[in-house]
Amino acid sequence: MLLALGATTIVVVALLWEIVVPRVEEAIARRRARRAIVEPAVPGYDPGRERRAEQRARELLRSCVNDEEWGMYRDLGFIRVWGTQAEGPELRSSTRGAPYAYLVYPHKPVVAYLPQTGRLLSEYCVEFPDETRPYGSARLPDSDDVLAKWMALTGDERRLIASANMHLPGRQVDPKRVRRDLWRLRQWERERERSEGRRDEGGTVPAP
Amino acid sequence: MKPGHGEVLLAEGDVEVSEEERALVEEFRRQLDLGMWAAVPVEDRVGRREAQIAKSFEDVPRDADRVIFFPRAAGGAR
């Protein structure tokens, strides 16, 4: 009887041990995490300063690009820049003279594509690192990165493409996302044309 | 353009005033020596906006109201 009771007690204690010990360990870990001093990922990172920098960068971008490009960036988060090279982004591009364009995202590769068919041509991985790292990071604000790409593409497309690392589509930017963005862009342009048409019609209607 | 700051005014002046022009040229060269690229936002004849890359101060149109310096491009993730 005593032996059976002892054995049962040991089994119960062993089972309880299995249940209780992980919970106690978790509670201890949580308590330690709460008390730990969390260092920012980048030393000296200040979210308020970064927000203000981004605000300034948006204003600068807005003052440089045209209304359509600004609206595109504000509403969709990227800018389309038309390519100007007759043979395509690179000497051996297979565009056969068809118009091509780039999607410019903040801190993501530039994606070249054919607007007529939506075919993705390539990704150009390019960065504009400021190695003086004034606040510990070499990364420009998002809108400054877009403006730098826009200036480099519209000012000297050949040089930017030569500076970039070229990859097939899908290396860093999900092709599904790009196709969805191209669809969003078409919808956005349609809506813009419609609203501009309404504005024009509104301007020609004679006053009652 | 600066990380954590955005736009920073480096120098300003009138190119028609020789002393101010000299200061602008010096700042322009200093920025290029630091490895920056310089661009002037312009509008073409049909109203399309684009940038004009300036590799020397002479490339900057005399009537430009600003020159933007930005870090030179480098190939991204391999």
Question: How is this structure best described in words?
Answer:
The complex is a heterodimer of chains A (208) and B (78). Chain A has 5 helices and 5 strands; from the N terminus they run αααββββαβα. Chain A is of the alpha+beta class. Chain A folds into 2 domains: 1-38; 47-201, no CATH class. Chain A has a 5-stranded antiparallel sheet. In chain A, helix 2 crosses helix 4. The longest helix of chain A has 34 residues, at 2-35. Chain A is elongated, with a radius of gyration of 28 Å. The model of chain A has no long low-confidence stretch (mean pLDDT 86). Chain B is α+β, with helices and mostly antiparallel strands and 78 residues long. Helices cover 21% and strands 26% of the residues of chain B. Chain B has one helix spanning 18-33, and strands at residues 36-43, 49-54, 68-71, 74-75. In chain B, strand 1 and strand 2 form a beta hairpin. Chains A and B meet through helix 2, strand 4 and helix 4 of A and strand 1, strand 2, strand 3 and strand 4 of B.
Summarize the structure.
By secondary structure, chain A is an alpha+beta fold.
Secondary structure: helix percent of chain B: 10-25%
Secondary-structure-derived class of chain A: alpha+beta
Number of domains of chain A: 2
| Mean pLDDT across all amino acids of chain B | 91
Considering residues with a beta carbon less than 8 A from a beta carbon on another chain, report the largest interface and each chain's count: A-B, 49 and 29 residues
Count of DSSP E strands of chain B? 4
List keywords for this structure.
heterodimer, A: alpha+beta, 55% helix, elongated, B: 78 residues, three-stranded antiparallel beta sheet, 1 helix, 26% strand
Sequence-ordered SSE layout with sheet pairings:
The complex is a heterodimer of chains A (208) and B (78).
Chain A: H1 2-35, H2 47-64, H3 67-76, E1 79-82, E2 101-104, E3 110-113, E4 120-127, H4 142-163, E5 165-167, H5 175-204
Antiparallel strand pairs in A: 1-2, 2-3, 3-4, 4-5
Chain B: H1 18-33, E1 36-43, E2 49-54, E3 68-71, E4 74-75
Antiparallel strand pairs in B: 1-2, 1-3
